[in-house]
Specification:
Blueprint: E1 4-7, E2 13-18, H1 41-52, E3 61-66, H2 75-87, E4 92-96, H3 105-112, E5 116-123, H4 127-133, H5 143-147, E6 152-157, H6 164-177, E7 180-185, H7 197-206, E8 216-219
Parallel strand pairs: 2-3, 3-4, 4-5, 5-6, 6-7, 7-8
Antiparallel strand pairs: 1-2
Length: 229
């Protein structure tokens, strides 16, 4: 599995995919990504150190992702990230967090001592689809609730049961309100959630202009950031 890459097409930065403890929730209906975690802290840290040592500081911007939230990374891995930040003069850090950790984000900002762009996987702003179909356990009612805590959102496109109207609403929200967004075209996996090919084709045709908007990154494949498998 690739765990380090340099992103150079938009928002230039280095990115690492680290191992972590299990996602506290681990019940999203579309996700088998949580299989990339462990309870063996020593092995987690050993692998993460190897990956983090690849960071050069080329763009002074670093994104750290894992199979859950940044709060599920071991303490020693967080310490290593912090040391890399100072050694490589990293100026901006991108981290992911579940909605449930929203009240702990300031703690992480204080710990690292540099600006952090927090990303959240909302998948959709449609409350019922997000929580009843995708089982995200992200119970905010309005995008303004998310804006209070997060600067970047991840949206999922092309799942059976989604509608064009849902997607149009999601796109309007992110285009008009958020600093950054990642659009993930759904890739079928070991879960029972299925792709809607017609919806994906419509989206690609209707929203191809997103490829030219710097603040929005569209992942047509789930490995388009150059990490994962």
């Amino acid at each position: 599995m690739d765990r380090y890459n340099i992103i150079e097409n938009k928002n230039n930065r280095e990115i690492v995919l680290l191992k972590s403890f299990p996602c506290f929730w681990g019940k999203c209906s579309f996700c088998d990504y949580i299989e990339d975690n462990s309870l063996n802290e020593d092995k987690i840290n050993k692998l993460n150190y190897e990956i983090l040592n690849k960071i050069t500081g080329k763009y002074k911007r670093l994104e750290v992702i894992n199979s859950g939230s940044c709060f599920e990374l071991p303490k020693k891995t967080l310490e290593k990230i912090k040391s890399i930040i100072y050694e490589k003069n990293i100026k901006i850090l991108f981290l992911e967090s579940h909605w449930a950790y929203k009240d702990k984000l300031e703690e992480m900002k204080s710990y690292f001592g540099i600006p952090i762009i927090f990303k959240i996987g909302v998948e959709t702003f449609d409350y019922n689809f997000r929580n009843k179909v995708l089982n995200k356990n992200a119970t905010f009612k309005d995008y303004n609730d998310v804006l209070r805590y997060f600067q970047s959102v991840c949206i999922m496109i092309g799942i059976k049961g989604q509608t064009k109207e849902m997607i149009q609403n999601d796109m309007d929200i992110i285009l008009n309100n958020f600093e950054y967004a990642t659009i993930n075209i759904f890739t079928e996996n070991t879960t029972n959630i299925k792709r809607d090919e017609n919806l994906i084709k419509w989206f690609k045709d209707s929203y191809k202009f997103l490829n030219h908007i710097d603040k929005i990154e569209v992942l047509y494949e789930n490995t388009d950031f150059g990490v994962g498998d």
